[in-house]
Design brief:
Blueprint lengths: L6 E2 L35 E11 L2 E10 L5 E7 L4 H13 L7 E5 L8 H9 L2 E5 L9 H13 L4 E2 L3 H16 L13 H14 L1
Parallel strand pairs: 2-5, 5-6
Antiparallel strand pairs: 1-7, 2-3, 3-4
Helix pairs in contact: 1-2
GO biological process, one term: DNA integration
InterPro entries: Integrase_cat-core, RNaseH-like_sf, RNaseH_sf, Transpos_IS3, Transposase_IS3/IS150/IS904
Protein name: Integrase-like protein
């Protein structure tokens, strides 16, 4: 495994906090109610942030996932967990031109997701913000499930030697494997992008 550039991780590691206490959610509604399905692509999205351990320190990964197709439409990575990280992920998703006007973006109550800056950013993109309850995994289970998949597939028990190495592996996984090749039971055992494109074609034909 060391030949692959992977370094064994310790059994227990510091887990950086990315959520704030229950009381500070700024009145943002939960527009999803644990319903992580959508009749059309680009109408309901979920997002979250996780960290990847490297010998240089943590690499933070923010994602934007389409609830209809399960495709990762946006992602961003950085050595920090600041608002710009989650904005970059949404910016990438919006840049595809696949998001519908008034789309819902659901997250946990991460400090940057509930910030005024992020709220204004979403409003400018005509995206509605939705948050679940702090500490309740089921309120953002779809986003968290993706992180479980990627960490299991990417040998999460080991630490990458550098952030650059970790970033290249994550990009290869998301764009080369997960979106295009990994079969998803909810899509009739098809990869996410195939399901997304098929739904778009059906809408266009209609």
């Amino acid at each position: 495994m060391r030949k692959q550039g992977l370094i064994p991780a310790q059994v227990r590691a510091f887990r950086p906090a990315t959520t704030v206490p229950d009381g500070d959610f700024r009145g943002i509604p939960d527009l999803v109610g644990r319903d992580f399905t959508a009749s059309r692509p680009g109408t309901k999205l979920v997002g979250d942030v996780t960290y990847i351990r490297t010998r240089e320190g943590f690499l933070y990964l923010a994602t934007v996932i389409d609830c209809h197709s399960k495709a990762v439409l946006g992602w961003a990575m950085a050595d920090h967990y600041r608002t710009e990280l989650v904005k970059d992920a949404i910016r990438m998703a919006a840049g595809t031109g696949l998001l519908q006007s008034g789309a819902v973006f659901h997250t946990d109550r991460g400090s940057n997701y509930i910030s005024d800056e992020f709220g204004r950013f979403l409003t400018g993109l005509d995206i509605r913000r939705s948050v679940g309850r702090t500490g309740v995994d089921w309120d953002n289970v779809m986003a968290e499930s993706f992180f479980s998949v990627i960490k299991n597939d990417q040998r999460h028990r080991f630490v990458f030697p550098t952030r650059a190495k970790a970033k290249s592996q994550v990009i290869r996984y998301i764009e080369g494997l997960y979106n295009r090749r990994r079969l998803h039971s909810a899509l009739g055992y098809r990869p996410p992008l195939e399901g997304f494109n098929e739904a778009l074609s059906t809408q266009t034909a209609a």
